[in-house]
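Q: Entry one of two.
A:
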Amino acid sequence: MILGACGGGGSSSSDSGNFSGSTDTSAIEGLWDVTDGDDIQYIQYTADGTYYNWDYEGDPNGSGENCYDRSPGFPILNLGGNRYDGLGEIATIVVNGDSMTVTDSFGTDTFPRLTGVAIADLNEC
C-alpha cells in the first residue's frame, strides 16, 4: 500500500530513492481511517517521519480477535511540495482539516481523520 494508505506495493516512480528529504511530517500527522469495505484499517503518521498500519483483526478479513495488529514503524520522508516517499513509494498527500487526499500511481483517494479515538484506545494484539 502506498504509504500504508492505498494501492499496492512496488515503486510508483522511477525517480524514487533519488531524493533527500526531511523527516518533518507534521503536516500529515494524525490517525487516518483508510478502511476498505469491511477491512477496518487505520494509518498513523507521526510528526517525526514514521508511519504505522493498524489493522483490526475482528473484522471479516482478520483473525477474529478483538484487537489491532500494528505494523512496525516505517520511515517516511517529506520531499517538499506535499510529496512524500514511504519505502520508495512516492505520493502527494494533502491534508485539509480532517480530510487527507493521497494521489499516487494508483489514483486519488480521500480519507477522514479518525477523531474521538486515541492510539491508547486501540487494543494492540
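Q: Entry two of two.
A:
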Amino acid sequence: MTTNSMMKTLLCPAILLAAFFQYSTLAAQADRFQQLETEMRAASGADRVEKLIQLSDAYLDAGQYDKAANWADEAGDFARKLRLQYQRAVALNREGKAMMLAGKKKAGNRFEQSLDILRSMDSPDKNLALNNLVALRTLAQRTGKAKDIVEIEDQINRISNNSALSAPQPPSSAPVTREELREEIGVLQKEIAKQQARNSGVAPNSADYEKQKQALEAALAEREAQSTR
C-alpha cells in the first residue's frame, strides 16, 4: 500500500466522524430553536419576553447574529408595550451584542438605550450596566475615540466602586486652571498605560493597538499644549 493510500484510509474515517459531529451539533441546535419557539408562542406577558430573550441568546451562541438581533428586537418591543423596563434593557443589550458581532453600525445605540433605562430604575442591575459599558468601551477602542474611552472608564470605575448608577457628566469647557489641566493629563496618561498593559501580548505593529494609542496620545498632547499657554 502506498503512502497516499494509507493517508486516505486514515483520513476518511476522521472526515466522516467530523461530519457526523457537525451534523449532530446542527441538529441539536435546530431542535433547541424549535423548542424555544414553541414555548415562546405558548407563553404570554413577561414569560413571553423571557422566551424571546432566550431565543436571542441561543442564536447568539450559535453565531447566527442577524436572527439573534431580530429576536432581541421583538423582545424589546414586546417589553416596551408591557412596560417591563428591566426586560427591555436586557433585550436592548442582547440586540447590541448581536449587531456588534455582526459588524453592524449603531450597535452602540442599543447599549446606550439599555443604560438609559437602567439609570431610570430605582434598583438597577449594575452587572448589566457594566456589560453595556464594556461593550461601549470596545466600540470606542475600535474607532480610536480617546475621549469616549476616558468617560466610559470613569463610569465603569464609579459603578465598580459601588457608586450610584448615573448618567455621565456633560462635557465641560476647557479647564481654566493649570491644576485642572494637570489632573486631566494624569487621567489620559493612566489610560495610555492601561491600553499598553492590555495589549502587552499584541505585536507592536497591531493596527488596532496603534490606532488606540495614537488617539490617546493625541488627546494627551492637546491637553499638554493647553497647560503651557
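A: Comment on entry two: Confidence is low (pLDDT under 50) at residues 171-176. Residues 3-42 form the longest helix (40 residues).
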